[in-house]
Amino acid sequence: MARIVIIGGHGKIALQLERLLADRGNEVDAIIRNPDHAGDVTAAGARPVVADIERLDVDDLAEILHGHDAVVWSAGAGGGDPARTYAVDRDAAIRSMAAAESAGVMRYVMVSYFGSPDHTVPEGNSFRAYAEAKAAADEHLAGTALDWTILGPSTLTDGEGTGAIDVGPPSSGTVDRADVAAVAAEAVHRDSTVRRTIRFNGGGTPIAEALG
């Protein structure tokens, strides 16, 4: 099938995505920072690659990405520290895009959020750093030569997933992380999602049909 690398491989969405991709016969590498998480990644059917994306430069990242067919960005600083949020969600993400181009890995799927890009969050708001970091990364990705897809799920929940979503709703609702993983697993192989920003809630349309 394909060789796919997931950046941020121990996240709740990423672990489910790894299992879905592996079950479909793909070879999946998962970049993680903490070696203690390797067992969880292996159990999900992926190969753990221990590397700190916050510290790697473009050449180092390109070496890791080389030979893959697609990159999925599912990493994040987790909020809290604005400096680290910018370092991971903006700067490391943008370096990974340059690395993908350098390594010749043109398919790139970004797991973002429903509201991005949003430059309206005021100074002093705890959400501002995340909103600005994601906006910068998404806007940069859309300006690259990569075959990109930006996924914009609404508020994340921990249900089992329904296998159905609502694409292009007028406002953000909720969606299970399991369905976000399923959307990413479907989108990464679909030419119809290239150069599209896809915002979605949980809904009533089967994922394969909803993506077109």
UniProtKB/TrEMBL annotation:
SUPFAM superfamilies: NAD(P)-binding Rossmann-fold domains. InterPro entries: NAD(P)-bd_dom, NAD(P)-bd_dom_sf. It comes from the Bacteria. Coiled coil: none annotated. Residues 8-190 form the NAD(P)-binding domain. Gene3D superfamilies: NAD(P)-binding Rossmann-like Domain. This is NAD-dependent dehydratase.
